[in-house]
Design brief:
Elements lengths: L5 E2 L23 H11 L3 H4 L2 H8 L3 H25 L6 H8 L2 H30 L7 H18 L1 H31 L13 H4 L7 H7 L1 H8 L15 H10 L1 H19 L11 H9 L4 H33 L10 E2 L5 H11 L1 H8 L4 H5 L3 H24 L15 H19 L5 H23 L12
Helix pairs in contact: 1-8, 1-12, 4-11, 4-12, 4-13, 4-19, 4-20, 5-6, 5-19, 6-7, 6-15, 6-16, 6-17, 6-19, 6-21, 7-8, 7-15, 7-16, 7-17, 8-13, 8-15, 14-15, 15-16, 19-20
Subcellular location: Cell membrane
InterPro entries: AA-permease/SLC12A_dom (IPR004841), Amino_acid_permease_CS (IPR004840)
Family: Belongs to the amino acid-polyamine-organocation (APC) superfamily. Amino acid transporter (AAT) (TC 2.A.3.1) family.
């Protein structure tokens, strides 16, 4: 059909260009969509489901963990914003790593972020298929196949449709959290529902104190907390397709503090004031627990719908970002040239199709192991996502040093407190990775990293021998 015909004008001729202006994408994402993509990127299953496990490990002090981690996320996003205003490109942090750290860094970052979203897409479509069994007795692999095909088709039509889907997916998540906050506020002030007699802000410190498991317990939850924030950087990938990136992206990034304050810190304060932290356990959504405490039987169904939406939103983002990352690699001679092809509507057909085909592995996993499919593929997501954050910070530090020496133009959106805030965020992430190695449950996330690094290292050496251009420093248009 016409929407997926390849436009060669943006394909082979673009292969030698890595500039933001010559990427060939259509700027179809407006301010409304960019804002909701930014909001939705910070709200996922890590909050709706994963917070139950974190609360059981840290108690009310998890609120502080989210606040501190949220500050670090803001430093990361402001570092990304400084780079985006210097040169807004769809390749985003892969491009910046290539320019300021080196071709090999760009190669590793691009392929690792691509793999992150493929793995995330598999886990999320698996989760979505699991949530569907709440209402209907449908084989998981059938639901996974249908969701993958629908989201793949939507991403091929146009970037505007992707943005519209993300807008409504994010709207569901935001509405659910705001609704929960308002209900909890009503219980605390008016005292309605079954929880009205016991609900009180004093529950934040009366059930064993604010740090019932000690400060060590709080620190060990930081890895769970940081996992919840993965994908917040997705807004950077939209830079090449934003209608007015110089205006919309800074506004979206500057909303990070209040998003975290409301959707994470605010929501947890309210929920833990209504439900004692001792009622939470791994695998139990804090939202479900709150509804049960209130005596509202619809809670499980509501939360199931919301987490289904969150999973589909993440999978949709994966479809979007993987094609862009593969095309960026191809434009820089670090991936197959065929990935440069765009449809007439400006979507990377081959890269998106290749990634979606790999995501169909999730369908096979659901067919073979429907009971534990999620656990078989989720372990690599955390460490690969954090690599993108590390490269954002390192690239920003290198860029700021060059800008201060007058070698490159200054950004119009400087990160406040940099380079000190960037160094702090970088050390914080490295500390979280160390904690992942200490925690036996999280350690599996690190096992795949050396193997992936070996694959990338060997692949780069082969690529460098066959095509020296792939390993050469390039002059970037600014």
């Amino acid at each position: 059909m016409a929407s997926v015909q390849v436009d060669n004008k943006h394909g082979d001729d673009a292969a030698g260009t890595a500039s933001g202006e010559g990427e060939g994408y259509q700027r179809g994402l407006g301010a409304r969509q960019i804002q909701m993509i930014a909001i939705g990127g910070a709200i996922g299953t890590g909050l709706f489901l994963g917070a139950g496990k974190a609360i059981s490990k840290a108690g009310p002090s998890l609120i502080l963990a989210y606040a501190v981690a949220g500050l670090v996320i803001f430093f990361i996003m402001r570092a990304l914003g400084e780079l985006l205003m210097y040169r807004p490109v769809s390749g985003s942090f892969s491009e910046y790593a290539r320019e300021f750290v080196g071709p090999f860094a760009g190669f590793v970052t691009g392929w690792t972020y691509w793999l992150f979203w493929v793995v995330t897409g598999i886990t999320e479509v698996t989760a979505a298929a699991t949530y569907m069994t709440y209402w209907w007795n449908i084989p998981q692999w059938v639901s996974a196949l249908v969701f993958t095909i629908i989201l793949y088709g939507a991403n091929l039509i146009s970037v505007k449709l992707f943005g519209e889907l993300e807008f409504w997916f994010s709207m569901v998540k935001v509405t659910a959290i705001v609704g929960m906050i308002l209900i909890c506020a009503g219980i605390l002030t008016i005292g309605f529902s079954d929880a009205g007699d016991t609900a009180s802000m004093t529950m934040l410190w009366s059930e064993g104190g604010f740090f019932p498991k000690g400060i060590g317990g709080t620190v060990m939850t930081l890895q769970i907390v940081m996992f919840a924030f993965l994908a917040v950087e997705l807004v950077g990938v939209t830079a090449g397709e934003s209608k007015d990136p110089k205006t919309t992206l800074p506004k979206a990034i500057n909303t990070v503090p209040w998003r975290i304050a409301v959707f994470y810190v605010g929501a947890l304060i309210m929920i833990l004031s209504v439900v004692p932290w001792t009622h939470f356990r791994p695998g139990l959504s804090p939202f479900v627990a709150a509804f049960e405490q209130m005596g509202l039987g619809v809670g499980a169904a509501v939360v199931n719908f919301v987490v289904l939406t969150a999973a589909l939103s993440s999978c949709n983002s994966g479809m979007y970002s993987t094609g862009r990352m593969l095309r960026d690699l191809a434009l820089n001679s670090q991936g197959p040239k065929v990935f440069t092809k765009l449809t007439r509507t400006g979507t990377p057909l081959v890269g998106t199709t290749f990634s979606a085909a790999l995501m169909l592995v999730g369908v096979w996993i659901n067919y073979q192991w429907p009971g534990d499919a999620f656990d078989k593929v989720v372990s690599f997501a955390t460490i690969s996502g954090m690599w993108a954050w590390i490269m954002i910070l390192v690239s920003q530090l290198r860029y700021r040093a060059k800008a201060d020496r007058g070698e490159v133009p200054q950004s119009t959106f400087k990160a406040p407190g940099a380079p000190y805030t960037s160094w702090f965020a970088l050390l914080f992430i490295l500390g979280v990775i160390v904690m992942m190695g200490v925690d036996a449950e999280a350690r599996v996330s690190l096992y795949c990293a050396p193997l992936w690094a070996l694959i990338l290292g060997v692949s780069y050496l082969v690529l460098k021998r066959r095509n020296p251009e792939a390993a050469a420093f390039k002059r970037f248009k600014r």
